[in-house]
Amino acid sequence: MEDKTWKTALQNASFEVSSEGEVRHKPPKVHYSKGYPAVCLPGQGGVSIHTLVLTAFVGPRPKGYCCHHKNGDRADNRLENLEWIPTRRHLLEHIKKRGFNLLTTGQVRQIRDIHKTGRWGRRRIGLFLNLNPYTVRSVLQGKSWVWFK
């Protein structure tokens, strides 16, 4: 007997039929939004997988709360790794883990100049300037210090 094969049903991208007469809903494609796995849902647009998991198993996000990955791995969306926590606490957790650097215009200029050489990545630049690599990344990706040219 041949292996079961699946084909798109009647040009409807959402459903497939098998050679055995079964019907299934196609799993949505996973994409990444700010480093978090997400899916596009009909009528809802992009939704992060961690939000789907917490909402289904814990309940809707309380006002003023956000999702926290306990182990820091954005791709680990197991229920045991997720929790709703106050947004302020979440921010403090990230500051503790990643550091909170206040930069000078001179440091920002150094980060950009060193990066332009192409010799060092953000981690090495951070070590050289005694800065957190996430701070360096934020400058290089234009998430902070956008106003400073």
Describe the structure.
The mean pLDDT is about 85. A hairpin with a 4-residue loop joins strand 2 and strand 3. The protein has a three-stranded antiparallel β-sheet, with no helix packed on it. A three-stranded antiparallel β-sheet has the order 4-5-6. About 35% of the residues lie in helices and about 25% in strands. The longest helix has 13 residues, at about 105-115. Helix 4 (about 120-130) packs across helix 5. The protein is of the alpha+beta class.
List the helices and strands and how they pair.
Layout: E1 6-9, E2 12-18, E3 23-25, E4 30-33, E5 36-41, E6 45-48, H1 49-57, E7 65-69, E8 82-86, H2 87-98, H3 105-117, H4 122-129, H5 133-140
Antiparallel strand pairs: 1-2, 2-3, 4-5, 5-6, 7-8
Provide a short characterization of the protein structure.
By secondary structure, the chain is α+β, with helices and mostly antiparallel strands. The protein folds into two domains: 30-98, Alpha-Beta Complex (Homing Intron 3 (I-Ppo) Encoded Endonuclease, Chain A), CATH 3.90.75.20; 105-140. The protein contains five helices and eight strands.
Give descriptors for this structure.
149 residues; alpha+beta; Homing Intron 3 (I-Ppo) Encoded Endonuclease, Chain A; three-stranded antiparallel sheet; 5 helices; 34% helix; elongated; HNH_nuc; His-Me_finger_sf; HNH nuclease domain-containing protein
